[in-house]
Specification:
Blueprint (H helix, E strand, L loop, with lengths): L8 H15 L4 H28 L14 E3 L5 E3 L4 H8 L1 H34 L2 H12 L6 H12 L4 H8 L13 H24 L4 H9 L4 H29 L3 H6 L7 H11 L3 H33 L1
Antiparallel strand pairs: 1-2
Helix pairs in contact: 2-13, 3-13, 4-8, 4-10, 8-10, 9-10, 10-13, 12-13
């Protein structure tokens, strides 16, 4: 678009930036690539290396609560002291193994429940009148406009012994005594599914809204029943959204701390709560860092499997 011979302020600013980068031998294209790499290095790789360093350090009383790893000797030589006892301690104590298994189990079940709820929701939004879709999508993301903590506290008001659900059931005469819903594993499932449901709905919607209606009609014309059409046509075409939504729900759910602490009972032990106790109650940063590193390694496996499944779907669509 013509600027009438005058550069706009953003264009002039970009011109100054590219000119400065060219002086140090960096092209504009290289700068665009370097920006996210720099971001990942500063906010992911360096903190991860710091956590890994603490995990390999020896616990010590003091501030910080671990001994230095790099030590300069009197002769000017640098010695490195690595302590793998924190990882051995985690592997030998069943508490941590149970916490990891419990976290993976709760996150996986929550992801499946969220998928079962989100799929019909996304299908309804994708097939609704176009002028109403933005309203349904706004209703899906509307809970994000309020504080995450307040939403979890609200569920405590619903699920408590004197909460709204028990009061309604007792007033209708369905139950005589309040049901135990709060401080249970079921309450944790409700909290996680409610909190992360939009992360499942939105990727599914973006796939289902692009689904060609002619394919569904062709399947029906060929004699396929609706359920068979759903399994053989709709689900395969929506698989990228299923995988993306599952990753967006499963990964944060596995390290969830607030929801199990407020809605779960003493038996609901997840790795996020173990991390909190080690860092802030026991002040054992070395074990806490080792717990975080092992959790990251555990997360790599399902992420790689989901990525491989997503790549297979993309290849099959070519």
């Amino acid at each position: 678009m013509s600027t009438g011979g005058f550069d706009t302020p953003p264009r002039r600013a970009w011109g100054f930036v590219t000119a400065g980068l060219n002086r140090i031998g960096i092209s504009g294209r290289t700068a665009v690539i370097l920006a996210p790499m720099l971001w990942l290095t500063v906010f992911f790789l360096i903190p991860l290396l710091v956590v890994f360093k603490i995990a390999l350090s020896t616990f010590a009383l003091g501030q910080p609560p671990y001994a230095p790893m790099f030590i300069w000797g009197g002769d000017g030589k640098l010695s490195i002291e690595l302590d793998f006892s924190n990882f051995l301690f985690i592997l030998s104590d069943s508490l941590y193994a149970n916490a990891y298994i419990n976290s993976v189990r709760i996150a996986a079940i929550s992801t499946l429940i969220a998928l079962a709820i989100a799929f019909p929701m996304a299908w309804f939004i994708a097939r609704s009148d176009e002028k109403y879709r933005h309203i349904w999508l706004m209703l899906v993301i509307l809970p994000f406009w309020t504080s995450f903590l307040l939403r979890v506290y609200a569920w405590m008001g619903f699920l408590g012994r004197n909460g709204i659900i028990n009061n309604i059931l007792m007033s209708l005469g369905i139950i005589d005594d309040p049901l135990l819903m709060l401080q249970t594993e079921g309450a944790v499932f409700i909290g996680i599914v409610y909190t992360y449901l939009p992360f499942m709905v939105l990727p599914l919607y973006t796939n289902l809204v692009k689904l060609d209606q002619n394919l569904i009609e062709a399947s029906a014309d060929l004699g396929a029943r609706p359920f068979m059409t759903f399994l053989t046509v709709i689900v395969p075409l929506a698989m990228p959204g299923v995988i993306a939504g599952s990753m967006l729900v499963f990964i944060p759910a596995i390290g969830e701390f607030v929801i199990p602490s407020l809605l779960g009972g003493a038996d609901t032990l997840m790795i996020g709560r173990v991390l909190w106790d080690e860092f802030f109650a026991n002040r054992d940063w070395t074990v806490a860092s080792a717990v975080a590193i092992v959790m990251l390694v555990i997360l790599v496996v399902p992420i790689m499997l989901l990525n491989r499944a997503q790549d297979a779907v993309v290849e099959s669509e070519k």
